[in-house]
Specification:
By secondary structure, the protein is an alpha+beta fold. It has 18 helices and 13 strands. The strands form three sheets. Strands 3, 4, 5, 6, 8 and 9 form a six-stranded mixed sheet that branches. Strand 3 (70-79) and strand 4 form a beta hairpin. Helix 4 packs across helix 5, helix 12 packs antiparallel against helix 13 and helix 14 runs antiparallel to helix 15 (431-442). It is elongated and about 130 Å long.
Length: 489
């Protein structure tokens, strides 16, 4: 039984009590003004423990509290228009109400639930200001909520003045994430630029001849492909050739000694053709080595296996049985196989392979002015560090993005270029490409992993964001990881 009910039974006659009470106390609707809240401006944001400190002042207008009433202000956590929790109330007792409560305590052993909170108001004609502090703990997964206060009066016996006032709004906890993109500016260090490469030319020669005939088969196309590959190495003024080896591959069919020498002579012919076509100077020509080596029968066996040729097993057995014998011995036994005609007609190459392997260095660029000038004409001559240095030197983000794209064209695994380009793309709203770049770079670059985790958090992919941010321990990472765990403390 509430105090409001108990004040008017047994000890005072019902008629007299109602007359006295309603004669002295008006209903809440007759009061002027309303309780106000001071001290809250912008929306409150939970901390990493999902807690919100509320620090306000309730302002009760003068004469709002009737002299026979109790005023109770009960803050509540409201989520989706449903009250989820009540917090410590503010309780203000007028003098007459306090006397009646005391009498009930003495005469009937009444236990007032608000005794500890109740504050006696002796002068109701003054504005009453009550500082109030509480910590609101949000349920796991709450993104938005508010704190409201229910204002009620007690004392009339028949009517209570009730009002609901906003105290504070609680914002999405992810709004606590502080924009902190991790941009990477690597320290520029001059480093020797050594480059290696290799290739093959499939050439046709007349039987037992080594002279180069551009009009035979696809020779012209094959040699032009070889010259295009080697021209930057042999003619580039920024390049210094370390070595170029041209190797003729001797056919498996025929005498090994003859084939090996013939292959070397064909490699010499390929070298001579390059020297003439590219107008290679003598000092560079001397760095071009020529060699030959036998092809062996393994490529033939692989070709037969790839074609699911049943005769492949017969060839394998010969190669296994005579593995420690000279290739001429192997060939003699292979020619005795019943399937020799099949091998000769379908699996022996009609052309001859010439391999080339090269190594060279590109002059390093040491001054900013030189790098900016040469970037416009020779970006292919830059290493990754030099390109990233250029990205730091250019004037605006549009040019910087172009340099990062160039870096990724020549160095697809450049995690720094991918990370920094992604950040610029995010500024422009190009989220899809930015995500691809960050995902590509996240395994090798902590900054990219962090940026990807923050982006995922912004998209509310909390579990994935927490996984990415696991190695980090700043405020952002801690908040996301706690969100992923349901806000546990």
């Amino acid at each position: 039984m509430s105090l409001r009910d108990r004040l008017f039974i047994n000890h005072i006659s019902s008629a007299a009590a109602l007359c006295l009470a309603c004669g002295l106390v008006g209903c809440a609707a007759s009061r002027e003004g309303r309780v106000e809240v001071r001290g809250v401006g912008e929306a409150l944001v939970p901390d990493s423990r999902w807690e919100v400190p509320v620090d306000v002042t309730f302002r009760v207008p003068a004469d709002y509290l009737s002299k026979r009433n109790r005023l109770v202000i009960t803050p509540q956590l409201v989520i989706d228009d449903s009250a989820r929790a009540d917090y410590e109330p503010v309780v203000l007792d007028a003098v007459i109400y306090a006397k009646k409560r005391y009498r009930l305590e003495v005469l009937e052993d009444y236990q007032d639930p608000y005794k500890e909170q109740a504050r006696l108001v002796e002068d109701r004609s003054e504005v009453i200001e009550v500082p109030y502090q509480a910590t609101v703990a949000l349920p796991a997964g709450t993104l938005e909520a508010e704190v409201r206060a229910v204002v009620s009066t007690d004392g009339c016996g028949e009517c209570s003045g009730i009002d609901t006032i906003p105290v504070a709004s609680i914002a999405d906890p992810l709004s606590r994430l502080k924009p902190a993109p991790k941009w990477v500016e690597p320290k520029f260090v001059v480093r020797e630029k050594t480059r290696d490469g290799e290739g093959k030319a499939h050439l046709q020669f007349l039987i037992n001849r080594f002279d180069m005939n551009p009009d035979l088969g696809d020779n012209r196309e094959e040699m032009e492909g070889m010259s295009r590959a080697l021209a930057p190495v042999l003619t580039d003024t920024l390049a210094t050739l370390s070595g170029l080896a041209i190797t003729g591959i001797a056919s498996a069919d025929g005498p090994l000694k003859l084939n090996t020498e013939l292959a070397r002579q064909r490699a010499e012919a390929a070298k001579a053709w390059l020297v003439e076509v590219l107008d290679i100077p003598a000092d560079v020509e001397r760095k071009i080595a020529v060699d030959s080596r036998p092809e062996g029968w393994e490529p033939v066996l692989e070709a037969m296996r790839a074609a699911n040729d049943p005769d492949a097993e017969a060839l394998r057995q010969v190669l296994t049985r005579y593995a420690d014998q000279p290739e001429d011995t192997q060939e003699r036994h292979i020619r005795q196989l019943a399937c020799w005609d099949n091998i000769r007609d379908h699996y022996l190459q009609g052309d001859r392979v010439v391999e080339y392997r090269y190594s060279y260095t590109i002059r390093s660029f040491t001054s900013d002015a030189e790098m900016l000038a040469l970037y416009e004409t020779r970006p292919d001559a830059f290493n990754e560090e030099e390109l990233l240095r250029v990205s730091a030197l250019v004037a605006d983000d549009a040019k910087r993005m172009e340099v990062y794209r160039t870096t990724l064209r020549f160095f697809p695994n450049s995690a720094v270029a991918a990370n920094n380009l992604a950040l610029l793309l995010l500024d422009q709203g190009e989220e899809e490409e930015a995500e691809r770049l960050l995902t590509r770079a996240a395994d090798g670059l902590p900054e990219a992993r962090y940026n990807l985790g923050m982006w995922k958090a912004g998209k509310r992919e909390i579990d994935e964001a927490a996984r990415l941010l696991e190695p980090f321990d700043d405020d952002n990472a801690r908040l996301v990881k706690r969100l992923a765990k349901g806000g546990e403390r």
